[in-house]
Amino acid sequence: MGLILGKITVETPKYEVVRAAATYEVRRYPPCVVAEVTYSPAQFKGNRDGGFTVLANYIGALGTPRNVPAEKIAMTAPVITAPAVPEKIAMTAPVITSENGGGGGGGQTTMQFVLPEKYRSADEAPRPEDERVLVKDVGERKYGVVKFSGVATEEVVKEKVGKLREDLEKDGFKVVGEWLLARYNPPWTVPMLRTNEVMVPVE
Q: pTM of the entire structure?
């Protein structure tokens, strides 16, 4: 029942609030270890969250862990996705063009699970059996963050990112990379009780 009502009961990343503004926070996150998969949503019939099952299998959320030494890894929140970016493909001939209406996943999406804090480095984490899963160390980083509820549709996220970037730059922060989407609840959570965040890296 708690998950349906949006209660977050799993480990979440620690952070320090550097600045609390009226519409956003700037947070400093310490180093962590993540498991990530990069994929084209087209591989999953256009599902932008298709990588979730790959990562869930790695940690054992759906059954036997697909890692060595088959160690069950606790689920954490949020699930982090980076925006789809155009996929670089080697040049071939002939050149074939077609109209793409968008939303079908023509680019690459990266999804990450932040591993529990007990894993201090990627070397300490179980090794993935699936070669699509990359376990890596992530250093300290700083983000401008805005929190919102509801369903994180592409339109809503685009609007939130645009406003956040505008507010950060107006307040003198330098944006230094692409935004991330962090979602803290499973899809069966009541939409109005979901916790989402857009995160924009800043210096």
A: 0.86
